[in-house]
Fold this protein.
Amino acid sequence: MQNFINIFTHGIFIKHAWFVLAVPFLSFVFVGLVLRPLSKKASGLIATLSISVTTLFVYGIIAECFLMHRVPSGAAWQVPWLRYQDGLSATLGVLVDPLSLLLMCVVTTVSALVHLYSIGYMRGDEGVGRYFAFLNLFTFSMLGLVVAPNILQIFIFWELVGVSSFLLIGYYYEKPQAVAASKKAFIVTRFADLGFFIGIFILGYYGFQSFSRLGPTVPQALSPFDFAYLTSPAFIEFFKHETYMIFGLSIFSLTLILVFMGACGKSAMFPLHIWLPDAMEGPTPVSALIHAATMVVAGVYLVARMFPLFVASPEALGLVQCVGTFTCLFAATIGCTQDDIKRVLAFSTLSQIGYMMFALGVCHGGNTLGYTASLFHLFTHAFFKALLFLGAGSIIHALHTNNVWEMGGLVKAMPITHLTFLVATLSISGIPPFSGFFSKDEILLSAFINHQYLTFVIALLVAGLTSFYMFRVYFLTFWSEAKWHGHVHKPQEASWTMTLPLLLLAVLAAISGFTPIAKWIFYTKSQVESHRLFFVPVFGVLVAAFGFLLAMLFYTGDRKIVDHVVLKFAWMYGVIKHKFYIDEVYLWITKKVIFRFIAFPVAWFDRRIVDGGVNLAAWVTRKTGWLLRFLQTGQVQTYGIWLVSGGLVMLLVLLTL
Amino acid sequence: MQVSCLVFLPLLTAFLVIMTPRRFSYLIRWISVFGTGLHLALTIMISFLFWAEAKGDGELLRTSLVFKLHLVEKISWFDSLGIQYFVGIDGISLTMVVLTSIIIFAGVLASWNVKERAKEFFALLLILVTGVFGVFVSFDLFLFFMFYELAVLPMYLLIGIWGTGPKEYAAMKLTLMLLIGSAFILVGFFALYYGSGFYTFDLIKLATANFPVDFQRWVFPMIFVGFGVIGALYPLHTWSPDGHSSAPTAVSMLHAGVLMKLGGYGALRIAVFLLPEGAKYWGLFFMGLTTINILYGSFGAIWQKDLKYFTAYSSVSHCGFVLFGISALNFMGMKGAVIQMFSHGIMTGLFFGLIGMVYGRTHTRIISEMGGLARVMPWLATCFYIGGLASLGLPGLSGFIAESHVFLGGFFGHSLQSVGQSGALMKTFTLIATLSIVVTAVYVLRGLGRVFQGPIENAEFANLEDAMLSEKLSTGILVVVLIVVGLYPSILIDVIEPAIRPVLNRLAGGL
Amino acid sequence: MLASIFNSPYFYPSIYHWLVLSSALFSIGIYGFLTRKNAVGILISLELCLNSGALNFVVFDYFRGNHIDGKIMALFIIAVAAAEVVIAMAIFVGMFKHKKTIDVTEMNQMRN
């Protein structure tokens, strides 16, 4: 045992941290180019194996950090990549610090399990090789994102996760909805990335201006893009006092808001949330990995990574709080009305990310417990949400339908799925002692002690709603009367490759709340350990219990009650069910405004006016020629007269000069 | 000697092609492929030598502001007029020569199926390429102009004879517009010739001349606009959609991939380098104009129905980046412009090659008539998507390297000591131009989605075949280059940087 | 007396006289060229113009040092004119065969 522990005391894993990026990348290339055409089975196997190895490696790094009682600061490994000019270059590196370790742990663990699950889930599909290559690409990109030591690397991998998400949502490329959803996801996030990109410009611009002066005072800052530099007090002090104002906002706050716009896009915050529900057209394991556990929390990660900057700008942080709170409530209400199991889960994801966002946002009240709470919730959420999705995938796999009203009675047919789904549901609803309880409690607490009472109340309400819609799904799926008796095949559990990940995730979803995360991840250590208010968790649990009871009342018994309630609030129900018609508004803007009023006129203008100008010039030339040809009479003598009179005129001119 | 080989090898190949009897059509193709392949090998050899040197004394070059030319050959030609045969290579030239070599090789492979008058086709193509290589390596303005015309004129025949659609109209329009551009250029060159007081066309010598500021202010726009015509400067770009869509595959590849780069190259190499004061005076104006270029091209592309028009408009947008970067007049901007020339050349060559291949199978280029082609042509679809992602600036592919340089150059411009341009305006233009990354995503994904994704709509398309070997080779090379540059940008940057510095130095008032 | 007349500089025409003559010839030629309808007439008028040119050569040669080259030029002109007449007449014959006329106003196939 001692020998085993000794492995972790040399810092080997940290020293070779590049391994974390190299393995998934090489595996992506290998699977994509070599194995894909050869063997479906081998593709899945190698892809899963490589991610598992990466996972173990990450655990090795974590073990080292624990055993050596130190967390390395600065990038563990870094190479120059792109030199813009002297003093402004981008590096590729691996940053090992508590925050990135947390994310690495989440990403690799969930990814490895999803890979394993996919072997079973995607069996028999034609393009399995492609699927696994993309999944590896995604894992590589996501890892690159979370370990980025500078903002440019984050952006690079930010785009790469975007594109792998695009590829995986559109995996069934012959299904028009999947194609549309993938395009929508990419374009909406791209639009948000525009803000992020501009934010990077501005940060880089001010960073570059001050770097020669302040850079040397910041340890480990190689270029103005480095987080070490951007989040250093010296730079923040400099940037904060920049007097340039736009729209009444200081350039500092504006920059952070632009960066937050990027975060909003990736994390599907209102009003850029529209792509996430549609993204459920992708294969379910993809939804579990990308659109629940990892990629969509990248926005939270980004804000957390730049937290020192955000803390210095109450406006930006206030916006984070508002957007987070609103999305949290907004998505939860929609979640109560959806019939597609994956869409319910998608809206619940939105709502939970809203929790994480506003937990970061409330910190402008002075207490930074929210920072810890948010990341804690990110951690637990990844497991229980991935579990929910994989459970849903398991059900869809067995029943071939997404509609919760067509399920039911699966308790006996699929006991493992049922058990694990229950654990996840309890966890997300915040029932102790499951993991969601602890993290949600901390978020509520952070809102309360920062005196954000409105947010606190909304958060409590959403906790109730969460419990309600999750148990709604749970009851409808597992307990209500079975509607699948007409099917030829009786639904049953799939192979071990699918159930094993479910079980492992269930264990994680149950116990991950006990992780002493606050010990490692904090913004101000003293503020994390102080307050403990007794009534906050009690309220939380009570509200959740209420939601549970309501769901039980509605969905275990007669459907008439539900129908009655729906009829009573028909108008409101309709609006919510149609997701407040936000998609339609966007569609109108793109189709009617952008395409019809910008793109079409531009194309027309180009063909008619600009090209018309060219054709006009050609026409004028031709017409002039046509006119001039009447001078060509064919009479030699006319030409002679022209000649002679021309000669005379020239003679006259010469004489007079 | 190496540089002359580089220039005249295609001409020799063309000669061999002409000498081959018409009935050996296979031989004609093989000679062309072999000639261009040999050329590519030669180019790669030279560039490795060059790269090793640039990397070797990197530190020295990094600080050196002197214009350093490699492999110079200088033979006097018309002494009395100050005209020389003066060729050589620097970083920018090398980048462009490599680009051209790759594109012509891929282009010859992509036109494997040309049956009609194959001999003349390949001969003209090779003659045209000779002109292009000549432009990129000549440092004598007279020689430069001669090669420039050699590059522009065969296009008329190539489009007029082997084209599709309204080919006579397109060929005429393209040639006339480009010739108007070259008229401007010629006048500008003569102005330089006399204005310098040296009575020489030697570029290096002209760079030591002290042109009066007023002189620079009227000559600069003349040369810049003259090159702008071929670089698709708004509003002189309209030859490009018609020309590109009527041209046969290899010609579109070459034209969009390489010939449009002559514009950016000339603008940087001659207009900005020789007339720095003029550049400073007009920089903001042209930045504004190219901002329109960038957005206009991308919005125009959204509405196009024909795949080639679609790509041509995206070319207008991307070539806008080249001139935008140059007008930013600073290190990052100009470097980005050169990278963008390379990257866009490869990318658009890939696009037009692929469109030709798809057209050869479906016999339609109308986007709405296709659909679901990914099932039957996975190779072509994959290449198309990689090209599309490169064009929307995905990191990891070359487009991102170029665009981020150009944007950063435009945005930082003011702070980079380069010129006295208004910082706020430059930033505004840059921010407006960045909008294009979203619009590009919209049109690329819409266009490609309609062509390749979804169910197969036309039953005739269900039995089409994927790329054959020569096509796979042709597109494969281009894709690999896109990826290599995207992952390891230093391969270009190390070469380009030393060549940009002298230009910057001149802008700062040195020399 | 007679000798004195012959020796008087006024007896010999000066360069101006010759130039006036040549201009007159030239103008008559031009007039004819512009007004005649008959192709042969035009040719003759043209010959007048040519000869006025040749005369100029000879005159300038004589009055400016009497080198031989002006006269050689005149000979050239005569030779060239002869050749020209031959070609022109051949064309006219061809035209006449074709159109049964040598009226130049009828020869307007190339108009517009």
Chain B has one domain: 2-507. Residues 25-56 of chain B form the longest helix (32 residues). The two ends of chain B are 29 Å apart (CA to CA). Chains B and C do not touch (no CB pair under 8 Å).
